[in-house]
């Protein structure tokens, strides 16, 4: 390094001559451009921008210049160094991009690889379809009621106007429970509930009208398991007791339900029938949601879902028999009500094209898993 | 009830174009469930005619005897010459009248008839049997031999009423009257708005004192007994073809003329009848309850021991029939084929109590056409007409003579009336029918109606089901058409949505499914065998079961006390079907007798039961808590391109309990336990805190190897079962939100050496208790055993994270907190800081 020297002519300092500065700058440019990878560039960087690089050395010379010469030389060197570091940055970015492109390609994976590390679980479709039906009514203001599966005969039959020895009592094949002392059927007075209807009676006894409840649950009848029967199955029951309820209200509620579950243009049909706990009573059908009735009288387009009947039988319904209201302490002069109930297995069968009842009861994961969490 | 359309037309003038399908639709709309419409003789095409056999030539030399016949078919064959026919049947002789199908005809089943060479002859047609004509198999397999009065050449299609439609109606228990042509005809007439020709409208002679003596000792069980006598019957008289055909189409076998007639009249009028061979009845006929242990052989040949509640028909010897259910063998009508055919009969047309008949039929497991009708209610006023109709037919068809004596014993009864506001049906339906419509519809079903705003309705004798205003409302609404009801929506009060309990149950199902478990819903039926296989001790509470009187299988007569048998069954089934990596769950009720169940009394139904009475019913029921269970086998995580898999183990099953408890916001305390059916060294007892008390809520772990073997389960099957009702009680109000500090965390790791039988849970609790409020979290990240630690020891490595809500902790503060934590662990569990 040279010391300040007044007699020294700055313009004559070799290293600060404009041509020399330009040359150094261009050398740096050339070196950067020639650097083929980041390592080479790092070397070029040290050589052309490091503390001992010619431009840095030239810069030091400026301090020794007389003040009047400093500005011009400083400007010249500064511009050259700025251009060099810009060129370096540009080349650095260029080479990094090249490297990244190469490395990321190397890191690429096959994103189509399967991943079944932890197989998914699922809820049973009978559970989820029951919830779905219940939710339709919960949204309308109904509450979900529950009751025991081992039930007193009084709740399962008597309170529902199944008088002793009435043939209707034999329509249902009942499992009778032995008494604590091993007593036979007639003595224990306890059965496996044959329908969810005893929850109607329990709801009326535990609430004050108006009563609007749905009762989903498990029920039992003495059928052997086959493709279309199971001794253990599920029903959902609805009960509405209020002032001035009519059969038209029953019809409207059914229509609403099938629309909510099967689509806006669905409707129901009532046909007279007999149940002890409703009077009048009806069988309820819904329009076949698959063929919408188009298969009727149309042998070219048969419908498997409804057997080309155009209607699907859903279940039984009717106006709550005043005798049931009386047995549950509700004044039939003031209140009336409607009720309906249907089998969940049947609904699952036709809604999801299940052909064999056994698939629903055996717990085979291959059947249940595709149904997931909701239905 | 099978209803031939041709027969129905006898009582209602249906338009000729009306098909069975049309009638079906009409009857369905008024509430009769017409299940099928059967076409008889579909595809049948003549010529099919009466023929008389002229000659029979037996053809020899074939495997079976063959006859070559000539048959007079009148002019039906166009020539008037005898028809030559080869026939394999043998139950006919020269001179018999038979049914002949001629070439050009088509029999049911698309069977075209043509002249053809057979057995060396040409057969120009066929002599027909019942099944060839689609009449149903009468059991004889022979050809039809007609009564002699028909002329050769007569059209047999019409004669045998071969082409018809039969409606099959499923009659509901309230509509007993529709188990008769009369009842179905009434509904048909109403549906079509046409008049009804009531077959019960007959002139009936007044009862007198010289009929067959009858003594009714039980007027409640038998409200009406009509007896008529017919003598001089020709035992060889056979039922005419029209009657046979109607009985066949209605689904009944033809037996003998007298029996056929009683059956025919029963089908026609709905009144069950019984015919006694008078020569076999000794003394007066009686009706009484049986004496306990009395014996009777019924017509079906069964020897029956009678119950004191059975209603019986008697003569001097004792019971000769189960009233309203089945007659006795001793007084059976004898067929002409037997030694002495019956020539004198006593006809019984009685009305028996529905409940008495139902009980007897059930007690003796004996359902008959008669009992079916009595159970559902028979028109008590039809007995006299039915007896008369039977007498008329016996006179007409069997050449008998009606005796003048008419016995009729009737308990006095008044017509039943119902008072009903005229607008009641409107209020039930939600439709303004108006009084006029209401009255008209009630009159159509046979009611007499008086009154203006308040109607007094007298119901017809054949409708015992009409007892309440709503019954009448149903009649009006169904005849006005259920399909015409409007659709309106009621407005329930605003609801509260699902209860906490219901939402918790749903969350638990979702959480388990989210954790990879698949729900199975198994049957709750179990037997002792599976409880033995589970290795339950003799006094295990789970052996105390609710038992069924009539189980589907004697092997499984009880209800589950644990969810595991069903769920393990599903696991085994899946495994057997090739799914080996399994995680299943189930939630449902188990049934736990308290041992103190009382008898469930039959409470009255004419009032609300008292709270005490309801409690009494509930006390008759076992406890029915809701439980959840999981079972696991095979891999919990699959091996794959990412690396190794992981078999499911005991820890997964314990974690399943935590997953469930987490949904309730409840912490589980785990303790080692020995409890069947789990592995004694790998069984966790699970506790939750209910009202400050630690309460057992289930078990989890690996199953005992012996249980795995006994139940043929995959090795190392794991299981968890918890009681959700206990969990629900442990739920403790709304969660309090944690305060989040944004100051830096100070982390301290410690490795503690303890005796290997010290539960990790105890060490962790001590560390937590000792670390104080600055402890944010604590996690066990390693368990190590080995030589460095020493035999019988294990090293537990914990990461402790400390943080203060208001400042950055110094290293000294964090270390001090760690040291007090370790000190407490040392004090409680003998833990030694590793390397110290």
TrEMBL record, chain A:
* Record localization: Cytoplasm
**Which GO molecular function terms does the record list?**
phenylalanine-tRNA ligase activity
Q: Which UniProt keywords apply?
A: Aminoacyl-tRNA synthetase, ATP-binding, Cytoplasm, Ligase, Magnesium, Metal-binding, Nucleotide-binding, Protein biosynthesis
Query: Transmembrane residues, as ranges?
Result: none
Q: How cofactor binds (record note)?
A: Binds 2 magnesium ions per tetramer.
Enzyme Commission designation? 6.1.1.20
Where this protein primarily resides, as one coarse class? cytoplasm
Per the UniProt record, one Pfam family is tRNA-synt_2d
Q: Which cofactor does it need?
A: Mg(2+)
Family classification: Belongs to the class-II aminoacyl-tRNA synthetase family. Phe-tRNA synthetase alpha subunit type 1 subfamily.
**What assembly does the database describe for this protein?**
Tetramer of two alpha and two beta subunits.
Sorted alphabetically, which HAMAP family does this protein's record hold? Answer: Phe_tRNA_synth_alpha1
Q: Provide the protein name.
A: Phenylalanine--tRNA ligase alpha subunit
Q: Report which gene this protein is encoded by.
A: pheS
From TrEMBL, chain B:
- Single GO MF annotation: phenylalanine-tRNA ligase activity
InterPro entries, A to Z = aa-tRNA-synth_II/BPL/LPL, B3/B4_tRNA-bd, DNA-bd_dom_put_sf, Fdx_antiC-bd, Fdx_antiC-bd_sf, NA-bd_OB-fold, Phe-tRNA-ligase_IIc_bsu, Phe-tRNA-ligase_IIc_bsu_bact
Cofactor binding remark: Binds 2 magnesium ions per tetramer.
The catalysed reaction is: tRNA(Phe) + L-phenylalanine + ATP = L-phenylalanyl-tRNA(Phe) + AMP + diphosphate + H(+)
Keywords per UniProt: Aminoacyl-tRNA synthetase, ATP-binding, Cytoplasm, Ligase, Magnesium, Metal-binding, Nucleotide-binding, Protein biosynthesis, RNA-binding, tRNA-binding
Give the residues annotated as coiled coil: none
Q: Name one Pfam family in it.
A: B3_4
Among PROSITE patterns, the record links this protein to: B5, FDX_ACB, TRBD
**Residues of the TRNA-binding domain:** 42-157
Sites where the protein binds Mg(2+): 465, 471, 474-475
Q: Which domain of life is it from?
A: Bacteria
The EC number on file is 6.1.1.20
Tell me which cofactor or cofactors this protein depends on: Mg(2+)
> What main location does UniProt list?
cytoplasm
The segment(s) forming the FDX-ACB domain are 741-834
Where, subcellularly, is it found? Answer: Cytoplasm
Domain B5 intervals: 413-487
Quaternary structure and interacting proteins, as annotated: Tetramer of two alpha and two beta subunits.
The entry's family comment says: Belongs to the phenylalanyl-tRNA synthetase beta subunit family. Type 1 subfamily.
Looking up NCBIfam families in the UniProt record yields: pheT_bact
Q: What is this protein called?
A: Phenylalanine--tRNA ligase beta subunit
Q: Which organism is it from?
A: Streptomyces mutomycini
